[in-house]
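Re: the 1027-residue chain
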Amino acid sequence: MGTESWLTLALLAVFAPVATGALTMLLPKGVITPRVLLALAGPVIAVVALLQHGVSTQVASLPLAPTLGLELSFAADQLGMFFALLVSGIGCLIVLYARGYFGRSEADLARFYPMLGLFMTAMMGIVLSDNLLGLFVFWELTSVSSFLLIGWHTNDRTSGKLAMQAFAVTGLGGLVMLAGLIALGVSSNIWSFSGLEAAMAAGTFSIGAPMVMTAFALIFVGAAAKSAQWPLHFWLPGAMAAPTPVSAYLHSATMVKAGVYLLARLFPVLRELDWWMPTLVFFGVMTMVVGGYMAIRSDVLKKIFAYTTVSQLGLFVCAYGLGGIDFLHGSHGGGEHAGSAHGATELAAAAGDPNIIYPITQILNHALYKAPLFILAGAIMHIAGRKALSECKGLIKSHRLLAVLSLLAAYAMAGLPFTLSFPAKEAFLYQIVHGAESHAVLWLVGVGAVFMAMCNVAVFVRMTATFFAKAGAHGHGHADEEHHHHEHERGFWGACIWWPAAALVIWQYIGGFAPGLFERIILPVETGAENYWTHLPSVFEALTHPTAALGLSAAAIALGLGLGLAPMWRRAINDPHNQLFPLSLRGGERLGHSVFATVQRGDVRIYVVTVLTALIAAMGATFWLDRGALLKWPDVPGITDVDYTLAGWLLTALICASALIMPIVKSRVVRVLVLGTCGFSVIGMYLLYQAPDLALTQVMFEIISVVLFMLALRLLPERGAQVRAFPVPRVVFAALVGLCVGWITLHAGAAADKSALDAWAMAQQQGEVQHAQMEHGGAILAAADVEGHEAADSEHHAPFVQVDDTRLGGWMLRNSYMGTTADTHGRGGGGNNVVNVILVDFRGYDTVGEITVLSIAMMGVLALIGACPAPLGLQERGPQRHLRTYMLRTAMKLLLPLSLLFAGYVFFKGHDEPGGGFIAGLIASVGLAAYRMSDGGAALKRLLPIKPGLTAAMGLALALGTGVAPLLIHLFTGEGGPFFTSDNSYVPLIGGGTYHWTSVALFDLGVFIVVVAVSVGMINRFEEELD
């Protein structure tokens, strides 16, 4: 199969669930069955796409940011295919189970399926991703989507707190893991798992590199947080606040296994690290013991199953840790026999390299009994109204089917004979025995494994005894918090609440009674490595060829039977680890409050002094380290060497005078005017030195700033009498700051001038640059006149192509219109206005971040203005005076269309001449803000009926959609390119001439919308507060 075909199938497998989940949102709420079938189509498509491709090491990539090593690359090798089928296959059953669990609740189903689809896509992306950074993107997406699912009960504060706890633990763990992935990528210069494995096999990757150990430690923290390893395991039982379909999917078969998957993926690369085995074994054993003990000391069914999940996750991690021991010394047949001749070789192979069938079977085995247990726990709560084990007495008589299925799944959980759990458990115990032959301390691991198995058996025994006990007074518990008061349906949809559990648990007994049939279905997914089992050993082989592993298993069963029947450890207790997160949160809040109270005193002078003190300290440290560099007078031209104009002298005098007057004047209004004078003087300097883009931007900022200042001043209380402090310390401090800033400016200007002058002289000598103008400070701006049509000479549209400048600015000049350097692959920015090309193309990622921050800041301002109490000086005031005069209203009705028309002109000309979406947005904002001030909020709402938050979201969506479009074009046509790839062409106009169209104009339009929404939204909120 070709790479393009696999890429298409991989994208279908990964994104089909979220796509179909999103489509269910378009259906009317009264439509139930089509909604279920549409949600079901997502995981079904994923399964079909995976089976169509089959197991392969082929990697298909869709570049996002190639220079950053970020791309969507997918591979479905044995490990990835297994987990992907597990995620999508069980996902199909959970979709149907949710229909039975929520019944005909239209609101619940409409909410649940989109969230489930998002999570399913995130998990599919994790297990199929071949790129380190791509995996992290999906990894964090699981944290976000699981937060939405765990916090399902929006009116329950406890549910919200537990959802935040899970999100904080897994999310912060993911950030730590990101640091580890970056360290691993930087140390190896390889950013894919397949590349790391190939380099390891070829001997070109050394685990002795300095950063590899650090990378492993950081990655393990992230994996341990996600897979609930001690002491971070507490979030998993807390997540049982989620509806049972969430627990059955996220916390048994998918999300909690993400960390185990990552360790399995990195096992071939990092297994030889000295700290691999002790780290994984220690935390794995601790997790096994704590999880097993808390399971036997819990009473709520979902809590019991959650803690047994924790203990099993510890087993997985411990198994991969034990795999780091090369105790077989290359031999697969040494040691004690575990069965037939086949059994000895196969189990020894499992012990030597756990990244093979037995841990895969162990993981599958866990999903095949744990998902049914959660499903049936939900069914018992839903139908019988009982959520605690102690309430389930007599369940075998009242709800025989639920009781029998639950006991079948619990029997498999106990690892008893004739289930798939039995050979999987035997293989793990066999691995411990062989490891202990060379490392005696590993017998402690055997003790922990026996303890965990004993607790699992005890849980099964107690469930059996309780179900068969005489029924108590417990009736149909409609008061239980998870009972949804849905009518118990009959027929197929009603049976969906239990038959998915039966469909899963039956495979446990197929693997136990007929392993051959099991192999023919499962093993094709796992073939391809030399050390795989050739068959699953049956219980008869284990019993007829007893080993030490079988002895450990028998001891666990005997102890479990005794513990299950004994009266000890029956009282439910709370896990002391549950206090870790609240204590950490309270400690962090106290620390944050003390720091905030110290630093954020509400006095701007303290903030300014702090920043400037840091500047002086940095200058002092630099002077101490390298006195020669700072004491050297910068190479700047003398006053008489430059042809200064009268305008330059006057503007300089105004700027200096404004700076000197600011600390002298007392009136707030006068200070605003002085500050505006300084700003407009700077605008004049921009115009004088040929920087029209900066001048336009600064003009709009100055106007909006003055408006905001005047509005804010009207909200401030009157100033009381102030005592003048002794001026000498202030003068000394100001002088030091002035010297530091002046000295830095001189040095920076000298370096920039020299670089710019050298580039200018070289360009002039070559005769290639004819219309360039040098901007003071080192930036060269282009304003080429784009005329003619598409066939015109490209040099005419790109006058800076031949600029020979090694600076970053020189690179941007050469590639502003068309890509002339090798690293651009012939693609340029498609424009002659270098400033705008930088904003929307070269640094498009930065611009996306900036407009996102703008939107978030606006939301914060809107929320804070409404939440803050009125200042003391304003509490007794009435409505504030405004400027809504008849003359101003009439004038603004005429000026508003002109300002919007000018904004449109600046927007459309901005890619080749001064302007662009950002400047156009500021121009439109000034007009709209003035219109609002003149005619009130009602007029603005008539003009812009959409709320500012929604408007900003639309702008962000348009900007991101423009970036994603090249990926989709590349996927379906082979053209396009990475994220934010741009294109341009000359479009003929009616009546003659052409218009230079660029694809980033849509991105620029998104910037325009965000700027207008943020500016007008905040000014309008200030005005509402005054009104």
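The radius of gyration is 34 Å.
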